[in-house]
Amino acid sequence: MSGLARLMLRGRTGQVAALAVTVFFSATVVGAFAVLLETGTRGQVSTGEYRNAPLLIAARQSTPVSGDVDLATPGRAVLPAAVVADLHRALPGSRIVTDRIVPAAFQAAGSDSEPADVHPWAAFALGDRTLSAGHAPHRPDEMVLPRELARSYGLNIGSRARLGFGDEAVEYTVVGTTTADDRGVDAPDVYLDDAQIAAHGNPDHRVAAIGVWPSTKPDARALDRLVVRDGARLWQRDHRGPLEVVSQGRAKADLVSSAAALGAIALIVAVFTVMALTSLQVRQRSRELAMLRVVGATPRQVKRLLRAEIHVVAGSMALLGGVAGPALGVVLVGAIRSWGVVPRTLHPVLGPLPVVLAALAAFAAAEVAARVALRRVVRGSPLPHLDDGDDAARAPRVVRRTIIGLAVLALGAVMALAPLYTSNVDVATGLPGLSGLVMALSIGPLSPAVVRIAGWIVRRPATRDPAAYLALQSIRHRAARVGGALSPIVLGVALGTVQLAGSATTGAVASAQHDAGSRADLTVSSDTTGVGERTVRLVRDAAGVGAVTPYVSTDVIVHAPAGTGNGPQTLAALGIAGDEPGRYADLEPTDSRPIHLRHGEVALGVLGAAELGAQVGDSVTVVLPDGQAITRRVRALYRRGLGFGEVLLPIGDLQSATATGAPSGLAVTVAASEQKSAVVRRLNDRLTNHPGIRVVGLSKADAGRAPSGGDRFGLLILLVLFGYIAIAVTNSLVTATLARRSELALLAAVGTTPRQLRRVWRWDAAFLAVTACLVGTAFALPGLISMTYALSNGDRSAPALDPVAYGAIVAFVIVLVLVATALPARTILRAQRQRASRRGSDDA
Which part of the chain is the ABC3 transporter permease C-terminal domain (predicted)? Predict the structure, then answer.
């Protein structure tokens, strides 16, 4: 059977090539996402910052989640200083070194500032680093820098540089450089005299890590009990990377979730496109397969023959794609590293899993496609298939296909209406996003009906042009076969529209809520150091400044109330003085009463509360940025959480949990008699010597915002998926066009000129492209409208879709369809002219 399959493959090189290319790129895309998934799961960035200590004790940098991936702590989890005293009592005579990290803004003369982590010099002994030049800092005005940092700014031993801790910068002399390789991590490590650390940052003196050189072999069980009692853990020497570069925990978690979700979509798309192409090719071979059955082949033998053909092609291409997929994954990891989505030193992890998964996924997609496509060729009598007609027009199959298509369409509609029947935000916003993809799957079974409806709409304009009329009649005659070419185009338009509009809609809703609720004119903020007390006074005393409201903006992990069954969620949090939320913003409370938080209370946005299943009066546990857990009672709910944060706490709860112990920023109102631009200029002049602190007018905060690394990562993934769909579309159109040789030959035989034939296939391609764009957009809109309605709490329903981006999708689809149809059609015409020329020569 395999030998016969190979012989039949040789006679269908065009169809074989189309299937081979589709399966190859299916494996490639799945393999690329598998590399992203494995890199996020197993990859690790380590700088050697804590490698030297025999025993290293520090807080856990994640919150366990039952039955799911652990949630990374929003900031650096730290330990109370009391742990050090416990260790001294438990391990007398041992050498114990603690590290306390203070965020700062480093600035050399004539340059912009950049974040830096400031450590006490004693903590230098925790790592495997050495001094490359100079000596340790002994005076209050001395510091030691990484060699690469000093070199990048042209600093030498004796040079001067500044550090900002939220107030006016402090100038230090560079007295040494280290061998630390801090490129592409959270921030370079700067070392100061030990006494300087106590003078800056959070006065709580919580410690980041504790290194122990035991004098004798410690009792492992006793040490474990001590560590667990203090909420810490022992970090093994080869697994300290997440403690050295804490941002990788959150970045890797985002990478895993994105790769898993998009990989699942890629797998669905792969199965769907391979199925559409396989079904199209099998449908075009109806006459050939019917002839085999007429001459005595059993249905089982026909199925075995076709499956053998597909296995030969899919098996080899799946293996090749399994090798190419990880290579593409390496390129994707390199791109997202360069954009700062993950640490720049996080290298891709290459193992056997991506290769095996990619090959199995592509082969399984081909197997599923073959089984579905072959069911139609072995049922019933083979005689109706001998006329090479489109059997999809027969009533029994039309009814069955229509029922299947309507069922899939109804499933997509139910998913799109998720906000109407569920309060779970993940479901209410996730299902509508996938509904367009599900609706696109219905286009195959419903293609005859879609073609008839579209043909009925354009029937009158089409009768005015003979070429358009011929193209329309041809499409109506080939309605079921057109579905095989139409399906991936619709899928591409729907997927592209949803991906482009989804993130844009979230940003638009958040921006609208912020603009509607904000009561400040500008902010003075620092993402690195916070705003110190002296800076607060400086801003308050500036001419033209009205009210000044300190706030803390960060992320927290919130555990759902007991008994709800919901898991913990990472949510954006806002800290404001308990009696002043209304001075900062109108959060639109659900009960229309002003929010006044007392100690032990929290307010939640309605979306965050829905995710947690929390109501007013429930108790929730909040994990703060430094890993502390506090229990708070829900006092109120508000609607504008997407614009300001889904968790509102008294500022004291959040400020004490920051590494700086200072507010993130100041919300400033401008006096009525002053112009905002003049106040901004005055504040900028006053804050010239405050590195890391910036003044931003709220109305301009997001205008012209440059695309972030995450935005570009999403766009890159969309391009990869859309590129794969474009390849599938091209293969389907080429296959469908090459199968029309007899039709084009008949038109040529009755006197149609080549120019007229070209007009026919152009109308054919235009009809397909426009129909696909309209249907794909129609499938995407219900889910987008529903998602917008859910995110905005019913305030708006129109999704945000960039007309330029959407126009680019439509233009790309139209050009792709025209080119993919024109090239094979020209090949057919050229072959016909050559045959006619040879016949003329023979007659002569």
Answer: 262-381, 717-831
Q: Identify whether residues 433 and 479 lie together within a single domain.
A: yes
Dihedrals φ, ψ of 444, to 5°? -60, -60
Total tally of structural domains belonging to the chain: 4
pLDDT in tens, 516-567: 898 889 999 988 898 999 999 999 999 999 889 999 999 999 999 988 878 8
pLDDT in tens, 135-163: 999 999 999 999 999 999 999 999 999 99
d(CA 432, CA 434): 5
Q: Are 401 and 392 in contact (CB under 8 A)?
A: yes
User: Are 666 and 591 found together in one domain?
Assistant: yes
CA distance 450 to 455: 8
Does 210 lie in the same domain as 338? no
| 421-437 per-residue burial string, b: 16 or more CB within 10 A, e: under 16 | eeeebebbbbbbbbbbb
**Backbone angle region of 77, left / alpha / beta, with phi > 0 → left and psi within -120 to 50 → alpha:** beta
Tell me whether residue 397 is in a domain.
no
Say if 74 falls within a structural domain.
yes
- In a shared domain, residues 413 and 507: yes
Could you tell me the end-to-end alpha-carbon distance of the chain, in angstroms, rounded to an integer? Answer: 45
Q: Are residues 524 and 503 in the same domain?
A: no
* H or E stretch covering 429: helix 425-440
**Cβ 427 vs Cβ 418: under 8 Å:** yes
Burial class (CB within 10 angstroms; exposed 0-12, middle 13-18, buried 19+) of 37: buried
The widest CA-to-CA distance across the chain, in whole angstroms, is 111
User: Residue 258: what residue type?
Assistant: S
Give the bridge partners for 631, in sequence order: 621
Is 569 found in the same domain as 479?
no
pLDDT digits 0-9 by tens, 279-301 = 767 766 777 777 777 777 777 77
Domain that holds residue 671: 516-700
Find the mean pLDDT for residues 479-505. Answer: 79
